[in-house]
Amino acid sequence: MASNLVEMFNACLLWVTMILEDPSARVVLFGFPIRGHYFLEALLGVVIVILLSQKSFKPPKRPLTEQEIDELCEEWVPEPLIPPITEDMRHEPPVLESAAGPHTTVNGKDVVNFASANFLGLIGHEKLLESCTSALEKYGVGSCGPRGFYGTIDVHLDCEARISKFLGTPDSILYSYGLSTMFSTIPCFCKKGDIIVADEGVHWGIQNGLQLSRSTIVYFKHNDMESLRSTLEKIMTKYKRSKNLRRYIVAEGVYQNSGQIAPLDEIVKLKEKYRFRVILDESNSFGVLGCSGRGLAEHHGVPIEKIDVVTAAMGHALATEGGFCTGNARIIDYQRLSSSGYVFSASLPPYLASAAITAIDVIDQNPDMLVKLKQNIALLWKGLSDIKGMSLTSNPESPIVFLKLEKSSGSAKEDLLLLEKMADLALKEDSVLVVSSKRSFLDKCRLPVGIKLYVSAGHSESDLLIASESLKRLASELLKS
Amino acid sequence: MITIPYLTAVSTYFSYGLLFAFGQLRDYSRLLFDWWRTNNLQGYAPICLAHEDFYIRRLYHRIQDCFGRPISSAPDAWVDVVERVSNDNNKTLKRTTKTSRCLNLGSYNYLGFGSFDEYCTPRVIESLKKFSASTCSSRVDAGTTSVHAELEECVAKYVGQPAAIVCGMGYATNSAIIPVLIGKGGLIISDSLNHTSIVNGARGSGATIRVFQHNTPSHLEKVLKEQIAEGQPRTHRPWKKIIVVVEGIYSMEGEICHLPEIVSICKKYKAYVYLDEAHSIGAIGKTGRGVCELLGVDTADIDIMMGTFTKSFGSCGGYIAGSKDLIQYLKHHCPAHLYATSISTPSAQQIISAIQVILGEDGSNRGAQKLARIRENSNFFRAELQKMGFEVLGDNDSPVMPIMLYNPAKIPAFSRECLRENLAVVVVGFPATPLLLARARICISASHSREDLIKALQVISKAGDLTGIKYFPAAPKKQDEEKNGIKLD
């Protein structure tokens, strides 16, 4: 039996060898005689290739059936659209019954108003009211269209030319809303991949613009030039190789959230050293700082060409609404087609644009308003210097006087409630209208909260005295811990 | 749905291709001639790379005179368009002192409040003298005047919701409200042709965004089912909430939204409805209350109603109307309410007066007349244009009617030809519309008289013949044939 098998095996082997050897016995390729075993190896190679090219085992996909989808839709319960309303959300703001000038009427009582950013006292100025009235009679109220589609009225073009002439820049562009100026300008120039270094205390409009631009954002400590320098240093070492990457520094002239003034001369030195561009928001410093009101650049003696983009909201010193952006011709031209808040929105009502032109004319002709404003700020500082429980943290030259709590209770919500109570009592008992900080949950700013007073050139000495006495009394009563 | 004729599509692609090729050629030649001139950027990255503003420099600048035309009078039915000249081939345009009086078919002046009005303007001037042009303060600080409080009540009553909040700019209303209502973990389903302000607000909120086919409720249902079943991307957790965003009238198509079907679908799947009535409030519906009144939808079914005052009320600003709790919550958290200057008091007074005129509370029936006139005008104009053979989009009753142009060369041709005959029209191309679908958009106003419209039709017909945009066959003049037949007999 065994020998039969062995014989059969040998016969098979001989047979296979003959098959393999036979056809190639006479083949000589490139000087090499081809042996039979090459065919076996070739066969093995083909088998290996087939096995490698097979897809790995995946469990079969089982999409959800219609019934399962319906069940999931039935079971799903959404959150309510808004969280339940708490008591502190029901707080009502004061309702004014007359113009928001240095004195106004609330609930029939005459009140000293430190809550309007009416820095030069232009609310109620007869020249402004005259120009508004004639514009209303000629153009009606609204402009009924975006700038590209017959919404450009000649007053808009005149206003842009007047702003450029006042500041000494080549061109400007008008926006119809102060808050939208920054969040439309920044995404226009900053795209995905660019680098922006911004102050941590910028207001919500700028934060929204930074978020919409999708660039890389790095914050530096509020108004701290050393922190800015080290941040710029770090970025330059990290992104050394990219030449087409745009780099920006974003800062405000006078910070809305703290009243500090940005040291523009140092920022410009750093910008020139590290090749960054500067975007500056001069909402609270336009018409206020500098000996003729031309803003932060004049205040620090920096030529305006060194700042690449200057934006401002006109709802502060100019006592009108809207905003503008100014800079060199290329930058402004580009915004006319790519800035979404300019292209897709109706233009500024013409009477507000003519009010802006008149306001700038008034500032140009009466520089003594600025002197009065500076005097008022100094008087208020003197009156509030010895307040207990709160400290003055704004810059002594800024028109926004900011008082922060010396001892915070730890939770921002508690502080906000306490400050709100203080502001309410100031209104009710002493007829002084001040601002307590408000923070939305969307606001990323973490600066300390406090009481803000907007000083105006229209305030008289007695107004400032009443305000400082009232705040001192309330601070000593409410902050007794 | 717009179905573009095959030949037109081919010729449009060819035109754009030619323009693109010429533009690239000019770019290269400029590079060649300028390479020896030193770049004065000195190490700064260029603020705008060459390919980013290629469209502006090579295509848009050629037809720049069709856009941004300044006017020097109120945007009424007849307007003074300022003439501009250019001595560097349309790259920069300078104003001249000459103006031409044109019929205005471009401004959003649906009810005719865009100019001096005998009831509204005296009240506006009075409020200006009392409250001045601006309050210089945000609403929560010292920016709420008695006029603002009255305005919010008035708007809420007019729209049919319990409460309303008003913001100084329509665009900012969307951008600032949507992030407050929904955040990461939520889903926003928006119509594919929604306005940029909604897109920006949705992006700023951090929620996931999905798009459904324009005005197709069946596709909305499909997307909703898929998304609820799948959950959040990657983690598959259930969505926190879903908001569906639609518009009342779509400004580039003139179509009215299929609101009843969409509301019933959203109710079935427990999604919240956000309705943007920028163009429809004050313009459609029997008493001007917008698309809800026109289509018979109960306002309590819509969670958030938003609108603007720029179009029908001749003012500026936007509003959100909803339940009392919603408005209270928004007043406490909305950034536009907390940080931005409040709406100018004279503008607020204009809105209140306009609403009073519309509702007839001023003692006359001018409001009802205006609403009837705009409906008549829109339907008449649209019917006549379609009879002439133009391709007109939009539904009946909608005052917005786009006329399709398609070809990029026809955009400036149509616009300039109309201006020569003293007719001011708006033309839109890429990027506001898809590349192939350029159009001229007509906005009818209640202050247009029948003679104005007939003149406009004559001019448009002539310009249409010259540019060849009558894509459909003109309706045969049946009445004339019958008359001839009778005469012969």
Question: Could you explain the architecture of this structure?
Answer:
Chain A: This is serine C-palmitoyltransferase. Chain A: Keywords: Acyltransferase, Lipid metabolism, Pyridoxal phosphate, Sphingolipid metabolism, Transferase. Chain A: It is an enzyme of class 2 (transferase). Chain A: Its EC number is 2.3.1.50. Chain A: Residues 109-462 form the Aminotransferase class I/classII large domain. Chain B: This is serine C-palmitoyltransferase. The complex is a heterodimer of chains A (481) and B (489). By secondary structure, chain A is α/β, with parallel strands linked by helices. In chain A, 44% of the residues lie in helices and 14% in strands. Chain A has 16 helices and 16 strands. In chain A, the strands form four sheets. In chain A, strands 5-11-10-9-8-6-7 form a seven-stranded mixed β-sheet, sandwiched between helices. In chain A, strands 12-13-16-15 form a four-stranded antiparallel β-sheet. Chain A is elongated, with a radius of gyration of 36 Å. The N and C termini of chain A lie far apart (111 Å). In chain A, 48% of the residues are buried. With 489 residues, chain B is α/β, with parallel strands linked by helices. Helices cover 42% and strands 14% of the residues of chain B. Chain B has helices at residues 6-34, 54-60, 120-131, 146-159, 170-181, 196-205, 217-230, 259-268, 291-295, 324-333, 335-339, 345-359, 366-388, 410-420, 450-467, 478-488, and strands spanning 78-85, 94-104, 163-167, 187-191, 208-212, 242-247, 272-276, 304-308, 318-322, 400-404, 423-424, 426-428, 439-443. A seven-stranded mixed β-sheet of chain B has the order 3-9-8-7-6-4-5, with helices on both faces. In chain B, strands 1-2-11 form a three-stranded mixed β-sheet. A three-stranded antiparallel β-sheet of chain B has the order 10-13-12, covered by helices on one side. In chain B, helix 9 (291-295) links the parallel strand 7 (272-276) and strand 8 (304-308). The longest helix of chain B is centred in the first third of the chain and has 29 residues, at 6-34. The radius of gyration of chain B is 25 Å and the shape is globular. Classes of the chains: A alpha/beta (481), B alpha/beta (489). At the A-B interface, helix 3, helix 4, helix 5, helix 6 and helix 7 of A face strand 1, helix 3, helix 4, helix 5 and helix 6 of B.
